[in-house]
Write a sequence for this structure.
């Protein structure tokens, strides 16, 4: 589904991502972990087109998408959520998700149609599935942090992606919220038959749902495998798991 | 009671009221109302950029000026009838907006604003210097009124002055333009523009080609500013380079802020307020800019939503008080 080959990105001589090769198979739940500053978010931005890699290729569904603009990448079936919550704060919850449908279904250039009822059923279906059905009319900027994260997931789903990239979907959440969000993500991925690639700093989350884990450290992959393989990798224990136990 | 008031066909009532001005008011009030209407359209076109797309243009007068010169030159020098010269103002202004906008939308925030200003100053300089076509510094006086003989045959309005006939035409055309803009703002396209205002980065990742949408908004806003300019040249009985000068750009921006950007009827309200205030305060004091500045500062701090925002807050309070 997604094949990333040897991508590199440097900022002012600092190698943020120093040659990463990684593949995600269709239907897989894959995670990238690594300490802060390991290059996880930069790696995501390279995949989604927000940054152009200095070298390397990104292939989605057999198509080379290296260097395409984010809006084109999005159209080719990739949905994304951001680490810092990234919604349209002054629009209502309904409007946030509806806008994504409008864009995805190519209705953005209708100048005289009325927008109100457009994609109403689809939008409510997405809101129900992310657990925001009762909050459709609320201004999204006033939602709780947890709800905003749910909304972000809803916006990503409205682009009807095959591959979903989630950048720290539980960042800043309480333990309860985290558990609920993970259950939600797992359910949606299963229901919609999505392929999922996410970054996370919470070990418990990662080991509970990921089928494959890649460990990033100083811009390089230092380990890759099933959760148990990664857990027992001495290098990983040294740079990451050990660090967190201190 | 408030909900019943809210459901009244306000736009139609305002149009009807505006049509009555020449019959009831003096020549001066008709003049004032004509001024307000044209500026209302100009300010609303700017609001499509500032309030809905989140693009602050400091050079919107460029398109107003281009529209004014287009209609003016066509009608005065080439004797083209108004029915063609008026839409031409929108088309030429829109084309200019397409060319300038192509570069402007590549920049963001203050850089965008500065580039719009720079282009507007270029337009002004061309109008100022190109004597053969624009009349240069002297401008182009005596733009003819459109042929409105058909109005003579209508009951009630037949006896009015030519300037009143032109006023009635302005009411209808501005109403039509505002209706079109209202539809655009309430369309799927308008919704996409608000996502760009709220969060361009996110908008990109729901698949929106942000630059392209910004450019389209820029062209639409420029075209409607051009239409406003086309009317203004005739209303003003002449077209002058200062139509495209930066002070006009700032004036229309002040109207938009004063009235409340992001609400559709804010900018027309701002145009009304600014022109009436100007008229009133100028007759009392020569320190009119000082008074206006003070009003703006107070308004921006107390009611960041402008007059329309303030009206909204007051009416909601009133509704709550009435219900209690």
């Amino acid at each position: 589904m997604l094949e990333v080959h040897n991508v590199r990105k440097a900022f002012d001589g600092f190698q943020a991502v120093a040659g990463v090769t990684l593949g995600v198979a269709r239907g897989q739940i894959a995670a990238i972990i690594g300490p802060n500053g390991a290059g996880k978010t930069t790696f995501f931005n390279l995949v989604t087109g927000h940054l152009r890699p200095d070298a390397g290729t990104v292939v989605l569904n057999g198509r080379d998408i290296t260097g395409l603009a984010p809006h084109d990448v999005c159209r080719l079936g990739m949905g994304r959520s951001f680490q810092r919550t990234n919604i349209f704060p002054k629009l209502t919850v309904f409007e946030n998700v509806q806008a994504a449908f409008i864009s995805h279904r190519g209705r953005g250039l209708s100048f005289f149609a009325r927008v109100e009822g457009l994609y109403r059923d689809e939008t409510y279906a997405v809101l129900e599935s992310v657990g925001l059905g009762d909050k459709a009319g609320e201004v999204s900027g006033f939602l709780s942090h947890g709800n905003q994260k749910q909304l972000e997931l809803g916006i990503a789903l409205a682009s009807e992606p095959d591959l979903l990239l989630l950048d720290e979907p539980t960042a800043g959440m309480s333990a309860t919220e985290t558990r609920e969000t993970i259950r939600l993500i797992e359910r949606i991925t299963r229901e919609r038959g999505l392929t999922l690639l996410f970054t996370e700093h919470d070990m418990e989350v990662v080991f509970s749902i990921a089928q494959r884990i890649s460990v990033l450290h100083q811009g390089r992959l230092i380990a890759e495998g099933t959760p148990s393989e990664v857990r027992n990798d001495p290098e990983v224990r040294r740079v990451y798991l050990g660090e967190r136990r201190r | 009671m408030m909900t019943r008031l809210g459901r009244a066909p306000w736009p139609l009532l305002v149009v009807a009221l505006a049509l009555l001005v020449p019959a009831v008011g003096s020549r001066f009030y008709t003049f004032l109302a004509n001024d307000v209407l044209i500026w209302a359209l100009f300010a609303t076109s700017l609001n499509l950029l500032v309030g809905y797309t989140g693009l602050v243009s400091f050079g919107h007068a460029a398109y107003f000026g281009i529209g004014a010169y287009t209609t003016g030159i066509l009608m005065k020098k080439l004797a083209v009838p108004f029915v063609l010269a008026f839409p031409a103002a929108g088309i030429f202004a829109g084309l200019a907006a397409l060319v300038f906008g192509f570069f402007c939308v590549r920049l963001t925030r203050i850089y965008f604003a500065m580039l719009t200003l720079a282009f507007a100053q270029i337009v002004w300089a061309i109008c100022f210097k190109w004597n053969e076509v624009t009349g240069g510094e002297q401008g182009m006086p005596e733009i003819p009124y459109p042929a409105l003989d058909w109005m003579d045959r209508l009951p009630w309005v037949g006896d009015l002055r030519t300037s009143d006939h032109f006023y009635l035409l302005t009411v209808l055309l501005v109403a039509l333009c505002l209706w079109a803009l209202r539809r655009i703002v309430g369309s799927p396209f308008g919704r996409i523009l608000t996502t760009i205002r709220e969060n361009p980065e996110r908008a990109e990742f729901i698949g929106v080609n942000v630059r392209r949408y910004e450019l389209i908004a820029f062209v639409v806003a420029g075209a409607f500013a051009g239409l406003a300019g086309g009317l203004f040249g005739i209303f003003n009985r002449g077209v002058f380079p200062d139509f495209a000068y930066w002070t006009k750009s700032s004036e229309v921006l002040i109207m938009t802020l004063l009235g409340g950007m992001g609400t559709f009827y804010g900018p027309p309200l701002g145009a009304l307020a600014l022109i009436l205030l100007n008229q009133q305060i100028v007759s009392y004091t020569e320190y009119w800019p000082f008074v206006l500045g003070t009003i703006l500062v107070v308004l921006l701090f107390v009611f960041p939503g402008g007059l329309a925002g303030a009206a909204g807050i007051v009416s909601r309070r009133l509704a709550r008080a009435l219900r209690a």
Summary: Chain B is about 75% helix and 0% strand.
